[in-house]
Amino acid sequence: MARLPSVDRLLKADAIAPLIDTFGRVETTAAIRNTLAGIRKDMAASGDEPPTDTAILEAASEALTQNAAPSLRPVFNLTGTVLHTNLGRASLPEEAIDAVAAAARGASNLEYRIGEGKRGDRDEHIEDQLCAMTGAEAATIVNNNAAAVMLVLNTFALGKEVPTSRGELIEIGGSFRMPDIMAQSGCTLVEVGTTNRTHLKDFAGAIGPDTGMIMKVHTSNYVVEGFTAEVPEPELAKLCHDNNIPFAIDLGSGTLTDLAQFGLPHEPTPMEAMKHGADVITFSGDKLLGGPQAGIIVGTKDYIAQIKKNPMKRALRCDKMTIAALSAVLRLYADPDRLVERVPTLRLLARRVDAIRGVAERIGPALAAAVDGFGSVTDTACESQIGSGALPTRRIPSAGLAISPNAKSGTALKALAEAFRALPVPVIGRIQDDAFILDLRCLEDEDGFTAQLPALDLPR
């Protein structure tokens, strides 16, 4: 069997210089060794002659390029779920992206008061904004809403009991359940009422010397209908205050605007919770608010001060880029007249069906040409959803394109979905009713989508 070239010989080739400039000598050398090892194994099995030096270097270059590609990549979310947890939830407004870049580029006054020349608090960059919007006396943020809930529970109920309605013991995804959060927070869950009906007397009867707080959890990711009852928030607040314990509300998705303007059912807001007497309110930053991943905590000054003193607060705190992004998004809410056009999440939720149909009309011909010989493309009515647990039973009328393979088989549909995921910017759709559906509610970069369709590799 002919011998393969040595690593030293390949490293002396003229074509190696650009690879070393791009990837470095160490990575390039390792790639050549790995490439030679793979070729040597293939030759032993097949008996083939060795490839040329040029072919070996091309294979090493391809491996280097693949290894250097970032794992976190942009995708086209055409699933119909606007806030798709697996696809990164909310897209940030341009103002927030610019703020992140500015914060990341160098030093900043993250915990420094420039006017006083003294150390400051990183919450100062967002606290006034959150208080002005929600009516709260104080605010703080951590890295997500589950962390916010855990921090609140640990602060006020460590080693104590937390009465909570049985109908509110939610699972928020990934088998992460409210009872588990309570257990990890060091408190004891006391279930009150029944799954469908809970009364004030149930909470009153559960309060004792070991009660640390009462928590109400907004069941944003499911709905209990029929013969139901829940305790109004003002009544729970009074009960808590009469017994000198904090009343906390976890809003989950959280929204700072009225969703009714988009034709959606009302979602409770932090502003309403404050008016109802809540002492502490938690909600997410990267869901309906349309900002970065964060757990936002607002409430009364005394209770927020206690939360900030908890040692867990440091472990759960947000970095400068998250704070910069959230502050930028909150500034957009100060201009409600332009809010929808500037916050991508709200813009996509508010998108009219006729506008989405227009997208289908414009990109349909290019898509049909790309799948010609494999299948056909037809317009289809779709039902989008908000996602991330918000209003799970409510669907939003949308429009899209359905690709039906000529071969009516699950194998053909799987191959179709795989081919779209293999594009330079992967396209994520959904398989439904023997077709591959592309819900176009979230497609705004039409040119970017159609430009890569010639690269679609389908079996013909």
Summarize the structure.
The protein is α/β, with parallel strands linked by helices and 460 residues long. The protein has helices at 7-11, 16-23, 25-46, 53-68, 94-105, 124-134, 145-157, 178-184, 200-206, 233-242, 270-275, 301-309, 312-316, 320-333, 339-342, 344-349, 353-370, 410-421, 446-451, and strands spanning 76-77, 112-113, 118-119, 138-142, 161-165, 188-192, 214-217, 247-250, 280-284, 295-299, 375-384, 396-405, 427-428, 430-432, 435-439.
Question: Top keywords for this entry?
Answer:
four-stranded antiparallel beta sheet, 19 helices, Aspartate Aminotransferase, domain 1, five-stranded mixed beta sheet, 460 residues, Aspartate Aminotransferase, domain 2, alpha/beta
Report what the structure shows:
By secondary structure, the protein is of the alpha/beta class. It has three domains: 62 residues, no CATH class; 116 residues, Alpha-Beta Complex (Aspartate Aminotransferase, domain 1); 249 residues, 3-Layer(aba) Sandwich (Aspartate Aminotransferase, domain 2). The protein contains 19 helices and 15 strands. Strands 4-10-9-8-7 form a five-stranded mixed β-sheet, with helices on both faces. A four-stranded antiparallel β-sheet has the order 11-12-15-14. Strand 5, helix 8 and strand 6 form a beta-alpha-beta unit. Helix 3 packs across helix 4, helix 5 packs antiparallel against helix 14 and helix 6 packs parallel to helix 14. The longest helix has 22 residues. It is globular and about 90 Å long. It starts with 6 loop residues before the first helix and ends in a 9-residue tail after the last helix. The model has no long low-confidence stretch (mean pLDDT 92).
